[in-house]
Amino acid sequence: MSSPQLLLTLEVQALYAQYSACLDEGRFADWPQFFTEECIYKLIPRENHDGGLPLATLSFESRGMLEDRVFSITETLFHAPYYQRHIVGGVRLLEVEPDGVVLAEANYLVIRTKRSEASEIFNAGRYVDRIVREEGRLRFRERLCIFDSELIPNSIIYPI
Amino acid sequence: MSCVESDTTQIPWAADEVSRVPYRVYADVQLHRQELDRFFYRGHWCYVGLEAEVPQPGNFKRTRIGERSVILVRNNDGTLHVVENHCAHRGVQFCQANFGSVRSFICPYHQWNYDLTGNLTGLPFRRGVRRGGVVQGGLPADFRLEEHGLTKLKVASRNGVVFASFDHATESLAQYLGADVLGYFDRVFDGRALTVLGYSRQRIPGNWKLMQENIKDPYHPGLLHTWFVTFGLWRADQEAKMVMDARGRHACMISRRNAGGAASVTEGVSSFKESMKLRDPRVLDVVSEPWWGGPTVVMTTIFPSLIVQQQVNSLSTRQIIPHGENAFDFVWTHFGFADDTPEMTRRRLRQANLFGPAGYVSADDGEVIEMAQAGMRQDPHGATVSQLDGRDVRNTEHMVTETLIRGLYRYYREVMQL
Asked: What is the DSSP string of B197-225?
């Protein structure tokens, strides 16, 4: 691996770590800043993705929609509170397009811990990302969270 | 130590009381088994899917009716069949894929072979194995293939929506739904070709009846769901009608949206957020469709297994699949019509953000059902109170009512003989 590639790999890994920390610490207001103004964020059941079906469990197309989600998490969606713990591994840089867009993937596991309950595996899947450099930092132009989990344990409130 | 199953006849429940339901009705294993038998396996139609999910001969879909695994399949002649997913030989659940395409069903264990209608067509070593001029083994001479097929269910398809029943004496689907509910069913499913947009699947830790009741409860949406009250999608000052079939088991909640904003019905409602503005309003880019014919929302409960959702441009079937007395699986199939423009398809997909396991007006339904179940389990002597708008059962011209829940329990007590 060449030095620039190695450096980019480390940068992408750092981006993933910062993204996980943001969500795991409950700093949801910071979450939209990981995305470009025009962006795609989708949480997709693997069966829909593999079957070519367009429905996503969540499907957002702008930073504004992400901010609307954050408002609803904190102000409108009634739910039992829980902690999230993201474990991200197997980061793979697939390609750097001529215009600099980085295509990357990683596996993820989200562990949910509800108050007074034991921790449980909540959602398992893979990130499929298109990443760009903007204002001196890496941001997601597109993040697909394609999850294997055939049954969601009741509901998903916070971002994955 | 002993483990005693409760005797259902001991549930204290005043005669004809339908406005109060003992908590034990939601958390009793013996009652649950009786419900499966009386509602899911006898005398009722259960949803199994859309014809669009099995468009070609050989296409199948695996699903469940109650807690029994079944397969919806399209035969070579185009007819639809539903068979139970276990081999007649040794009981193996031979089908493990959600969807697929086959020429016949073959059990992997001993390769018993069935045609797509469930007839046993062949099996290895039926006539034995010839060795050294002697036939060894084989099935008895009087073994008849036709006596050992898969369990075949009665099937009814109406305008692309497929129901099945283990009970071949079940009345026709049209009779089962009754004229009023059928009218609203046909409003969505009028014979136009459907397009499946995708699935969401969740397991909700609550009794399955709580989801039927959630969509028979027009009281909660304008209180629990901020998006409904703030943006005027469902709230108590709207035009509305509550319509049941004659027996009170199926129902439609019908309404027309208003402009939202502050009004007397939002006073003191903590979920109402007057200043809430969407940063990106495309999620609520509602366009009226000619077939609506007035209402902007019709939520239909078809007892026991199905909810049909039309809320503005978002359409789904929601299948209720019990999983013991304390949980059920909830399967959402979002769909549109084959003649939708790409813009309409995108609109349906954007509005789908309101619904499903993460949706703005649905995720919290699952959450409160889980909390209701927890509360009911902790107090076997408690009972619900559903007395908004009285204690009787009748259709209404407004939504400030719990009449549909009372209708459900009038029917429930009749069938359960409780």
From this structure: EEEEEEEESS-THHHHHHTT-TTSHHHH-
ipTM of the complex model = 0.97
Tell which phi-psi region holds residue B261, choosing left (phi > 0), alpha (psi between -120 and 50) or beta.
Answer: left
- Half-sphere exposure for B219 (CA within 13 Å, toward CB): 15
Nearest residue on chain B to A157, alpha-carbon basis: B358
Instruction: Tell me the pLDDT tens digit for each residue of B160-213.
Output: 999 999 999 999 999 999 999 999 999 999 999 999 999 999 999 999 999 999
Are the Cβ atoms of B363 and A47 closer than 8 angstroms? no
Nearest to A65 among B283, B334, B364 (CB): B283
Is the pTM higher than 0.90?
A: yes
Among the partner residues B198, B271, B356, nearest to A53 by beta-carbon distance: B198
B226, A56: Cβ pair inside 8 Å? no
Q: Give Dmax (Cα) for chain B.
A: 93
Q: Which residue of B205, B271, B370 is in closest CB contact with A76?
A: B271
A73-99 burial by CB neighbour count: b if 16+ within 10 A, else e? beebbebbebebebebeebebeeeeee
Tell me if B273 and A72 make a contact (CB, 8 A cut-off): no
Tokens of A45: 């059941």
Is residue A20 within 8 A of residue A39, CB to CB? The reply is no
Phi-psi region of B299 (alpha: psi -120 to 50; beta: other; left: phi over 0): beta
Q: Least CA distance to B315: which residue of chain A?
A: A55
Nearest residue of A to residue B205, measured between CA atoms: A154
> Are B395 and B403 spatial neighbours (Cβ–Cβ below 8 Å)?
yes
Q: Could you give the CA distance from residue B355 to residue B361 in angstroms, rounded to a whole number? A: 6
**End-to-end Cα distance, chain A:** 30
Partnered with residue A7 across adjacent β-strands are: none
Exposed e or buried b for every residue in A51-69, given b needs 16+ CB within 10 A? eebbbbbbbbbbbbbbbbb
Q: What is the CATH number of domain A3-147?
A: 3.10.450.50
Cα–Cα distance between B164 and B167 in angstroms, integer?
A: 9
In sequence order, what are the residues at sequence separation of 6 or more whose Cβ sits closer than 8 angstroms to the Cβ of residue A122?
A84, A110, A111, A112, A149, A153, A156
Query: Residues in chain A whose beta carbon is closer than 8 A to a beta carbon of chain B?
Result: 43, 45, 47-48, 51, 53-65, 67-68, 71-72, 75-80, 150-157
The pLDDT value recorded for residue B9 is 54
Instruction: End-to-end CA distance of chain B: give it in Å, rounded.
Output: 30
User: Where are chain A's structural domains?
Assistant: 3-147
Any residues with CB less than 8 A from the CB of A134 and at least 6 apart, and which?
A36
Give the residue from chain A lying closest to B327, CA to CA.
A154
pLDDT digits (tens, 9 = 90+) for B36-61: 999 999 999 999 999 999 999 999 99
* Contact across the interface for A77 and B363, Cβ inside 8 Å: yes
Greatest CA span in chain A, whole angstroms? Answer: 51
Q: Give the separation between CA B395 and CA A17, rounded to whole angstroms.
A: 56
**What is the mean pLDDT of the segment spanning B375-380?**
96
Distances B90 to B72, B111, B149 between C-alpha atoms, Å: 21, 11, 12
CB neighbours of B141 closer than 8 A, spacing ≥ 6? Answer: none
In a 13 Å sphere around the CA of B202, the CA atoms on its Cβ side amount to: 26
Type of residue numbered A99: D
